[in-house]
Amino acid sequence: PPVRSPASGEDARRFRRGRAIHRLLQILPDLAPADRAEGARRLLADFDPAERAPIAAEAMAVIDDPALARYFGPSSRAEVPIVGRIGTRGVSGQVDRLLVETATVTIVDFKSGRPPPGGYDDVPPAYLAQMAAYRAVLGMIYPERRIDVVLVWTDGPKAVPLDTAGLDPYEAYLVAAPT
Predict the structure, then answer these.
(1) What's the CA gap between 119 and 159, in Å, rounded?
(2) Which of 3, 11, 48, 64 has the smallest number of CB atoms closer than 10 Å to its CB?
């Protein structure tokens, strides 16, 4: 099939919306709860007025979800750049939220599309590979801590913890010498 640019048509709108949600999830948790609506309004000022409320509501649903609250607490950081080498491969990325605790480091990655219908079993392999790479790099930085990975679909929201063993084959591929 012909190659489509993600910068045109519906894909461009979807990516722009996803970037906006990520930005809201980065900035709004640091604001006082009473200031978040105004913060969202300012951050979404260049969106069509009909789009603003649903985008802000989706981000706020994630921030306000009691099951996800710890990912926005004082031990977490937003948009953490990571760089490392796994085997002979370089890894460069940005962790949406990183929660560093005494015994555990949790990588949280936000996905603004629809959640997979079957939960973990339907997580796209590209996401698993990405998270395995992040986990491998952070495992070198925090060798004494367990590294957990959670994908959070903003539509819902729905959190899907990733099975460590399920990420192992992707990490093994990264460590193996390229052929």
Answers:
(1) 9
(2) 3
